[in-house]
Amino acid sequence: MKGGMPLWKYAANRFLTFMENILIGAKLSEYHTGYRAFSRQLLERLPLENNSDDFVFDNQMLAQILWYGYTVAEVSCPTAYAADSSSIDFARSVKYGFGCLSTALTFRLAKTKVVKSRLFPTVS
After folding, report:
1. Do residues 29 and 74 make contact, with C-beta atoms less than 8 angstroms apart?
2. How far is CA 15 from CA 30, 31, 97, 122, in A?
3. Are 63 and 103 in contact (CB under 8 A)?
4. Does the pLDDT value for residue 79 go beyond 90?
5. Taking a C-beta distance cutoff of 8 angstroms, is the pair 21, 8 a contact?
6. What are phi and psi of 108, to 5 degrees?
7. Secondary structure letter of residue 68 according to DSSP
8. Which residues are CB-contacts of 118 (< 8 A; sequence separation ≥ 6)?
9. 3-state class of 102 per DSSP?
10. How far apart are CA 104 and CA 64, in angstroms?
11. How far apart are CA 27 and CA 18, in angstroms?
12. pLDDT digit string (tens) for 105-116?
């Protein structure tokens, strides 16, 4: 919040991260910056065509990386908010939040074989 992140975004980020860590079984510090680096080989192995065309795409991709058992290394990313820092408004943020929760719940249900999912296909 020192970097100017609005309180409602900070609270939502912490809540979503907590829920995603529980449902996915990871221990990431956060899922939502979108600041990531990937190898070409990894990207070619993920079923990205099954992901959303909206903001939740990167969250689904991160969950898929964990689904396939890859390691995620985190690098600290300082927050620096300005008036034009984010193109997502409150209504789309709510949609994004529910999309993240849906992704994490689908991950858990697919992992326990309760549902089949195009995002998280059975790993042979």
Report:
1. yes
2. 10, 11, 10, 28
3. yes
4. no
5. no
6. -60, -45
7. T
8. 47, 50
9. helix
10. 10
11. 9
12. 999 999 999 999
Q: How far is residue 3's CA from residue 32's CA, in Å, rounded to a whole number? A: 16
- Give the start-to-end residue ranges of the domains of the chain: 7-111
- Contact status, residue 88 vs residue 96, Cβ threshold 8 Å: yes
Q: Which residue has the tokens 């065509």?
A: 49
What does the block give as tokens for 4? 């100017």
> How much is the pTM?
0.88
Over residues 61-89, mean pLDDT: 83
> Helices (DSSP H) in the chain: which residue ranges?
7-24, 40-45, 57-67, 90-111
Instruction: Choose among 35, 28, 34, 30: nearest CA to 12.
Output: 30
**Token digits for 72?**
């995620």
